[in-house]
Design brief:
Layout: E1 5-8, H1 16-25, E2 35-39, H2 41-51, E3 57-60, H3 66-69, E4 74-78, H4 95-110, E5 116-119, H5 124-127, H6 135-142, E6 150-154, E7 159-162, H7 169-175, H8 178-196, E8 202-205, H9 218-233, E9 238-242, H10 244-247, E10 258-261, H11 264-275, E11 280-284, E12 289-293, H12 310-318
Parallel strand pairs: 1-2, 1-5, 2-4, 3-4, 5-12, 7-10, 8-9, 8-10
Antiparallel strand pairs: 6-11, 11-12
Helix pairs in contact: 8-9
Length: about 325
């Protein structure tokens, strides 16, 4: 069977439907594997009318074949969801619907109907009720592989991976573990070798600017240094630990492929400033590939036809590289 991918519609009251419509309309302009949408057909038509798009939808089910996706009609695996208006305020009302969409994608992946899926943006604060959890962590738990999912924010020029995600800065120091640094780096190294036939150069950042550590932070310093030493023994191309404040200035000079930071904003803030909509979020370490556009729900531009679909298109295109 020709490899196919699914796109989860994501938060119903967001820019997700708009970027889906734009990506479908422009699909002849980029190379991609056959794809379909998992979401509510009724809601998609409602939003289509609001956004003034005219796209015909083809309903599919578990028994779909590749030929069902090679059509001028947008294939949609329907998940029922009732909503009177095309866009409403984001609340927990949509949580059940979103999780049902994920369940469909996970089932199709388990049954080898798809090689992976893309989820459009969700409101993490509403979906996970402020538990500091993201989709990466959620999927890891669903696979009974807690902490196995590795977040890689990817661009072909440079990628980044935060060791800790969605937690307060005050919690970071206690979450830095030797085994986690080694395991994460090995997972990323394997992914690059398998899919790009490339042995990547990976930089490990220190926790503080200039790699300075107070007397109370010596334990963290030793953990990072020990992990770097171990990775060198494993013959992985490692740089570091390097000073965080200059890492994004010198990445071209040092020919870095990946930068692993100790916390979320340490690497995502400069990375997004560099690549914006050219970046995508890839989850590694699971039985399938999960990708999402590297941006949020766009609360301020919902229904205004202003959303940029480039990151979703880059997510779709990325599956061309998967082996």
């Amino acid at each position: 069977m020709k490899k196919t991918i699914a796109i989860i519609a994501g938060e119903p009251n967001s820019i997700s439907s708009e970027i889906i419509f734009k990506s479908w309309i422009n699909k002849k302009k980029y190379n991609h594997k056959p794809f379909f949408i998992i979401g509510s057909i009724k809601l998609l038509y409602l939003q289509m009318k609001k956004l003034k798009y005219k796209i015909k939808i083809k309903k599919i089910n578990n028994n779909f074949q590749v030929k069902d996706l090679l059509t001028s009609q947008m294939p949609v695996y329907n998940v029922d969801y009732e909503q009177k208006k095309p866009f409403e305020k984001i609340t927990s009302k949509s949580n059940k619907y979103i999780f049902q969409c994920f369940d469909v994608a996970l089932s199709l992946s388990k049954n080898k109907k798809i090689i992976g899926f893309i989820n459009c943006p969700v409101a993490k604060e509403t979906l996970f009720k402020n538990k500091h959890q993201g989709i990466t962590e959620y999927l890891s738990k669903k696979e009974n592989k807690k902490n196995n999912g590795v977040m890689l924010i990817y661009n072909k020029s440079l990628s980044v991976s935060p060791l800790t995600t969605h937690i307060s800065i005050n919690e970071v120091k206690n979450k830095i573990k030797y085994n986690e640094i080694v395991k994460r780096t090995k997972t990323i190294n394997y992914f690059y070798k398998k899919n790009f036939n490339k042995k990547p150069i990976i930089a490990i950042l220190g926790l503080n600017p200039h790699n300075y550590y107070s007397k109370k932070e010596v334990k963290v310093k030793n953990i990072i240094n020990k992990a770097v030493k171990k990775l060198n023994i494993l013959n992985i191309k490692i740089e570091g630990p390097i000073s965080p404040d200059s890492s994004f200035i010198n990445y071209k000079k040092n020919k870095l492929d990946v930068i692993i930071g100790m916390y979320h904003d340490q690497v995502l803030t400069p990375f997004k400033a560099l690549y914006n909509f050219s970046a995508i979020n890839v989850t590694l370490g699971l039985k399938y590939i999960r990708i999402s556009p590297d941006h949020g729900v766009g609360s301020n531009i919902i229904g205004k036809k202003m959303a940029n679909c480039k990151s979703l298109i880059e997510s779709i295109k990325f599956f061309n590289y998967i082996k």
